[in-house]
Design goal:
The chain has helices at 53-71, 107-118, 166-177, 189-197, 200-205, 237-248, 252-262, 291-315, 338-346, 362-365, 371-382, 384-389, 393-397, 402-407, and strands at residues 8-14, 18-26, 32-41, 45-46, 49-50, 77-82, 88-97, 126-138, 141-144, 154-165, 182-188, 207-212, 217-223, 226-233, 275-278, 287-290, 325-329, 350-352, 359-360. It is of the alpha/beta class. The chain folds into 2 domains: 4-85 and 166-235 and 305-393, Nucleotidyltransferase, domain 5; 92-160, Dna Ligase, domain 1, CATH 3.30.1490.110. The strands form 5 sheets. The chain has a 6-stranded mixed sheet with strand order 11-6-1-2-3-19, sandwiched between helices. Strands 14-13-12-17-18 form a 5-stranded mixed sheet, sandwiched between helices. A 4-stranded antiparallel sheet has the order 7-10-8-9. Helix 9 (338-346) links the parallel strand 17 (325-329) and strand 18 (350-352). Helix 6 packs across helix 7 (252-262). It is globular. The protein starts with 7 loop residues before the first strand and ends with a helix.
């Protein structure tokens, strides 16, 4: 029987430039539709982390109220996106010896080996956000999908662990809870964005999702249907604006305007010798800006961000796995010609990512800056069954995401 009381799922992204609340509704047939969206300009966040809880709370309240009005629902709980330079991902392997007389692997052995893989040695002040199962090994035989029923002496499992500093993860949770909202779960925003924009085929072929935000850039690699790598750079669109303000000797506000109206990810011959006239708001003489200089400043920063990611993936040996190419989302994906820059840096096809497998507010779904919010809703839809089984946030944060990434 369809439970309408659990049909509403809300994703909340507290970003550097905006706070975004997305309301999704599960249908009796198992589909997912976006029915509401609320936004507010973000004033209390820097580099994807809260620095002014009071201002952030006011912006969250505004976004939630707008989403409630559009969706005509009362929001009581959210799936909360988290990011920041403190978040890290790494691979880990768990091992378990099979002790039964016939050496047949049982479901209990699978549970034990996953438990061992999750027992990672992290600093005391760190907390595990996700443990994503990759594949099993039986007596050294790799790429085993389901070892139950197989014979073996040793069972191993490879997992990808995403973790962060506990207090820095608790800050956004506390801010949300102070508004009398329950946090159903926290989700690394890079993972959320990948859930929104990748198809099952994209994940199987191998894909890189880059979410270019205002204060941070998150990236996630899928190969053979599973997450292989995650990362965060505390650099984003705000740093491009800052570069322009410094290089062109203009205010941050004017630099942001120039970036949006005249910026691009690379320099081409069409802008040589072209200038932009700037009028002064304070009675000072009009001045001109060299358009080629503006775009060169932007190109250097955008290229640097992508090259850092490419170097990280090269060190991890993952570039050859990305047969589906690069998917760009986040507000920074709107920079003209950034796809061409990504193709040059990675040597792969790059596309502006679109939301997949979800219906509703079509105009909203086509906007790259809403990928995280929509992905949080999609994450929540996969977590419905588990949510009914536990009321403890701490318990849920330790659960594996095996079912989620098999179904996503």
């Amino acid at each position: 029987m369809f439970d309408s009381s659990s049909a509403i799922i809300v994703g909340l992204e507290v970003g550097t430039s905006k706070v975004c609340a997305v309301v999704g509704e599960l249908t009796p047939e198992g589909g997912l539709s976006v029915i509401g969206l609320g936004q507010a300009r973000s004033r209390g966040v820097r580099k994807a982390e809260i620095v002014d809880p009071t201002a952030a709370a006011e912006d969250i309240r505004s976004a939630i109220a707008e989403a409630e009005q559009m969706a005509d629902v009362e929001i009581r709980s959210v799936f909360l996106g988290v990011s920041g330079a403190h978040i890290r991902g790494f691979d880990n392997r768990g091992r378990h010896n099979i002790v039964s007389a016939d050496r047949e692997i049982a479901s209990e052995d699978v549970q034990d080996v996953i438990r061992n893989a999750k027992a990672v040695n992290l600093p005391a002040d760190h907390h595990v956000i996700h443990v994503v199962r990759q594949h099993f090994l039986v007596d050294g035989q790799p790429e085993v999908l389901n070892p139950v029923g197989m014979l073996g002496a040793q069972l191993e499992v490879d997992v990808h662990v995403v973790h962060g500093i506990t207090n820095r993860l608790q800050n956004p949770i506390r801010t949300v809870k102070d508004l009398q909202l329950e946090v159903e779960d926290i989700v690394f925003t890079g993972v959320a964005s990948s859930l929104a924009v990748l198809t099952t085929q994209d994940k199987e072929l191998g894909s890189l999702v880059i979410d270019l935000g205002a204060g941070a850039t998150e990236y996630v690699v899928y190969a053979n249907g599973i997450i292989k790598h995650t990362g965060v750079l505390a650099v984003g669109g705000d740093h491009v604006t800052n570069d322009l303000a410094y290089g062109l000797k203009v205010s941050m506000g004017r630099a942001e305007e120039l970036k949006i109206e005249h910026g691009a990810g690379q320099v081409d011959s069409s802008v040589k010798s072209r200038t932009i006239s700037l009028t002064s708001d304070h009675g000072l003489p009009e001045r001109t800006i060299n358009l080629e200089h503006l775009r060169r400043i932007m190109s250097l920063r955008v290229t640097e961000i992508l090259e850092i990611i490419a170097e990280d993936l090269a060190e991890a040996g993952l570039l050859d796995y990305l047969r589906a190419g690069v998917f760009l989302c986040g507000g920074g994906a709107r920079i003209p010609e950034i796809q061409a820059v990504a193709e040059r840096v990675f040597g792969l096809p790059a596309t502006l990512a679109r939301t997949q497998s979800i219906s509703g507010l079509v105009a909203t779904l086509d906007q790259p800056e809403f990928s995280t919010g929509i992905g949080l809703v999609k994450f929540g839809s996969f977590q419905q069954d588990r949510r009914r089984g536990s009321n403890s946030l701490g318990h849920r944060l330790k659960n594996t995401l095996t079912q989620l990434f098999q179904r996503a």
